[in-house]
UniProtKB/TrEMBL annotation:
Positions of transmembrane segments: none
Cellular component GO terms held in the UniProt record: cytoplasm
InterPro entries: CRAL-TRIO_dom, CRAL-TRIO_dom_sf, SEC14/CRAL-TRIO_domain
Record's protein name: CRAL-TRIO domain-containing protein
Organism, scientific name: Diploscapter pachys
Domain CRAL-TRIO as annotated: residue spans: 1-181
Amino acid sequence: MEKIAPFLPFIASSRLQDRQFSEELNAFLFVERAWSQPKEFIKVFKTSDYLLHCFGYSEVLLQLILNREKKQDPSKGPVQFIVLFDLQTVNIMDYVTPSGYLKLWQLRSALWQDWFPEMCSAIYLLHPPRIISLVWSIAKLFLSEENLKRIVICHSEKELSKHLPKWFVPKEYGGDFVNQIPPGDESGVSIRRKITSADYYKPHLHYKKYGIERPKPSKKDIGPGEKFIIPLHVGNDKNLLLWDLTVSGEVEFCIYKEKVRICRFSFKLKDAFRTNPNYSTRNYDLLRTN
């Protein structure tokens, strides 16, 4: 939580938990607003920390689903989420060219679809831009064919009302529901704070935290299937090992102690993510104690 807390104020996602549930639809309500400052948003965290947040948040939602399924008749089938995704704050042109935040969205979407593939029953896009063909082109960058079929584009509150009961939908989108439980707003979405330069992520803080000067970095080109080994001599007392690295491809990083592997990380970029010249590297700051 320590790594995630600093950038949570910049995320506008659902805080409804299990408060809005439709027996008829067998689904919870999830509301999210699209990024309003995508270029600034990716400057306030490390990729690894944001994806950790996304994974943890999805696990929380999964627990809500499992708890509900335990209480109801199995014949009702799997409990899912209905997503209202508000595009009102989006500048669609931010997503038509390769960029770091576009690739981050792809990573987040891949994580959700790989680990939680059946969580959503429908995704309603609200306040879409006028060029609908562009919306579909961008959606195809993020979603699998199966999840593309779940998308419903609603140009008005009247269109949304054809699909969902009025009591289930937040008042902001033409329904009756008004959330009164903080930290969410009336639609149950966390209130996002504007990002300034003072909020930008400051790298290598783990060195400063322990009062250790960061060593001069070095570069190594590693070919496919090649191994690169750095031998270290440490004493018998308790030691603190800190490091950071930047990768531009798929790398497996391991720490061995007397031929026994005690730590392993795999940094992978899917094929679709390798083509973006503005997203060629990712940074990781790590520490290990023994």
